[in-house]
Amino acid sequence: MRILLVNPNSTASMTEQAHRSAERVAAPTTLVEAVNPTTSPTSIEGHADEAMAVPAMLAEIRAGEARGIDAYVIACFDDPGLGAAREIASGPVIGICQAAIQVAMNIATRFSIITTLPRSVPIIEDLVDAYGAGHRCRKVRSVDMPVLALEEDLAHTEEMLVREILRAKQDDGAEAIILGCAGMSELCDRLKLRTGMPVIDGVTAAIKLAEALVGAGYSTSKVGAYDYPRVKSAAVARPVDAVA
């Protein structure tokens, strides 16, 4: 089985970190490949970054289709372009936010999410509602750190996350925690040990879900909304004076 992990931003170190997390949990028969575009924003922190990142991400998935990839993981917690990616892929496409929420709903009655910047909070709240988990998510919290700052000082990042996890346990009544950024994935096990809380990383959750779907023989439905995009001819521009 071949899974392509696509980091929609252009920061290679973040791609490598997510790749290490994915390989740690992948089955021995699973080959996880990891790529990132070189023309996307260096981090995805808002709607504009998402929009700019999607075309290059879709190009990576189209290339994966040509190579016979079985499933895809979009390694950004905003799940950018998820519907579009499912339209162009024959195999399953898993967003790490949706995967993490599905895991949380199976192991806890209520959970909180910890993300990076405050501006990401409403985006994630809307995703939670869209995935039908609004009644189970107690709060989306922020450590108020830019995405790229996460890997600059991992010790500091860990301390910030530990503090916020303990607050979520006490103040939110959370029974599990979701890490709201792919850049946090390598800290998952340490955070579990230090807080005594189930801590869910979307990258590893998405890899295991992708393996399960492919292993069971499920593919993306091409009946209706996720059908392949219709082929359209490019519009031909005409000189202004030729327009009647």
Automatic annotation (TrEMBL):
Leading EC class: isomerase
One Pfam family matching this protein: Asp_Glu_race
InterPro entries: Asp/Glu/hydantoin_racemase (IPR015942), Hydantoin_racemase-like (IPR052186), Iso_Racemase_Enz_sf (IPR053714)
Superkingdom of the source species: Bacteria
Enzyme Commission code(s) on record: 5.1.99.5
Molecular function terms from GO: amino-acid racemase activity; hydantoin racemase activity
Catalytic activity, reaction form: a D-5-monosubstituted hydantoin = a L-5-monosubstituted hydantoin; D-5-isobutylhydantoin = L-5-isobutylhydantoin; D-5-benzylhydantoin = L-5-benzylhydantoin
PANTHER family assigned to the protein according to its UniProt record, in alphabetical order: PROTEIN DCG1
Recorded family membership: Belongs to the HyuE racemase family.
Protein name: Hydantoin racemase
Protein source organism: Ensifer oleiphilus
